[in-house]
Amino acid sequence: xxxxxxxxxxxxxxxxxxxxxxxxxxxxxxxxxxxxxxxxxxxxxxxxxxxxxxxxxxxxxxxxxxxxxxxxxxxxxxxxxxxxxxxxxxxxxxxxxxxxxxxxxxxxxxxxxxxxxxxxxxxxxxxxxxxxxxxxxxxxxxxxxxxxxxxxxxxxxxxxxxxxxxxxxxxxxxxxxxxxxxxxxxxxxxxxxxxxxxxxxxxxxxxxxxxxxxxxxxxxxxxxxxxxxxxxxxxxxxxxxxxxxxxxxxxxxxxxxxxxxxxx
Length: 264
Fold this sequence. Notes:
The chain is an alpha/beta fold. It is 25% helix and 22% strand.
């Protein structure tokens, strides 16, 4: 399976974020792992070739636990993408991480189950280090870009990734909070890890839409409320992505590119 389409930088759209590139052309990318969530939109941002794919599909048809993460990531690899920006709608587990702010995560904790989370099912056993889940080259670029737009930005944070589609109970949320984790989400695993297996640099931008229910006095969150906050912040997110794209080095080595070295 091959494609003549090409892009340098990939962007995954999250909940409420289904378009990015003006005057884009769309292409289906056929992968060995099945179809990705939707057509890939291809075009230019800040003079760079960019591929945009809404991880849930344009009509949000795929809940987080059934997204074909392997097809989504492999489609980016087939296009020649070397860097991926992964914005996500997230809840806050810490009072200082306020709704409307953004977190450039540096760690994650996987609490999902049953997801296809590797490209290496054998016969060669492959162990890829994931000690530092997010790209050390892209993270400071993202922090600088967000702050240059006046966005309240937390330069590090741990995301706990839950299975979904349900939200947490109060006890679960309090447990996550007690462990010192700042952000809760449903899609960062295995998306970030699969990028590492493919040697693609990956950065997350967590848009905080609400406080999670484990914080004292917080009412239960609704999907509608999450969507409304994300929609209100869509333009800020698009501006931030454009600045990150503009600042990504055109030719720079990174430890992410060498993830498979020593893995076999």
